[in-house]
Amino acid sequence: MTLKAESSSSFYNLEKKHPVKWILNILLERPILLFWIIIGIIAHQSLRFVIPVLIGDLVEFGIEDQDSSQVKFYATMIIVTAAVSAFLDLTMSWANEIAANDVEYKTRDIYFKSVQNKNMAFHDEARLGELLSIAQNDLRSLYTAVAPGLRLFGESMISVIVVTALIYIESPLLGIIFIVLLPIWFQSLRVYNNRMTPAAIDQQNEFRDLSANVNENLVAAKIVRAFSQEANELHEFNNSNKNYTEAWIHRGKVTALFIPMLLTYSLSGIMFIVGVYLALNPSITVLGFTYSENFGIPQLITVMGIIILFRQPTFFVGATLELSSLGLAGVRKVQDILVQGISEEKEVNLDNDLIIEKGDVVFED
Fold this sequence. Notes:
Blueprint: E1 2-4, H1 8-15, H2 19-27, H3 31-63, H4 68-116, H5 120-125, H6 128-146, H7 149-170, H8 172-223, H9 231-256, H10 259-280, E2 283-286, E3 289-292, H11 297-338, E4 346-349, E5 355-357
Antiparallel strand pairs: 1-4, 2-3, 4-5
């Protein structure tokens, strides 16, 4: 990746892409890891939701029919499924951690090489504490956006698909009701993300400002001891600290109003009421149309077990949006830094440490 002063605008267009695309470009440099994460998420989540189905079959074919062979078979299947699921979870977590470290390392490498080769005007105006905060806090937030953020998001989306399919298999009517109500759940996530993103950006900005004030105060204190006790410096620090605290409080208010979880509980209640009615009334007549299906107490137990598991992906996707909002805010700031203060006399190669100086050397008497 080469950064040229005379083509800084083209470099900006190249790198000023959506932060998600920035992360994906780095992940795709090691496709095997990304492939295993995706496969692991799909397989692991599918097996997790198979267990409630096996428990329902155990109740229906083993316990109710008092068939000991069926009890042994389904009990063995449950144990094997849980063991395979645990193995996939372990290896997937390992791959996710490596991928997250890779993204953080490469982004930090690009960032530091870019900052080192900025022109003097940039360094005169830049605040050292802010640059250090980006290198530490923002890039570490990028790590958590990938691990566990990537895994949690993938598990949540796969869980939604698996839950929908399993409910429809157990009861087409309940499956249709779930599918009809699901867009409301997705819309609530979209609204939550739109509120979380600006809150995360404000929080990161206030932390950078606070770090810059602390750094400037401590550095100046070494030169003029009384400087750190100046009323103006204390006032500026207190304002930064107050703004950072208020940013956290605002983000906490956004997190507290996590409507998707409330919708999940409401959805569970609706499915339970309809399921009980369907179990007690095999045939339902609506507007002259009679609908019937083989739905009993075992099927109701299975469906409610699946619905209960749906609360976990709802929590996971909420946590993912919180983590990713901070990480993506950090990427945006790094992208802004990359295109600032590009020296007109340098061509910077970000893939290695080679710096090509341009110009003539003139010796004067």
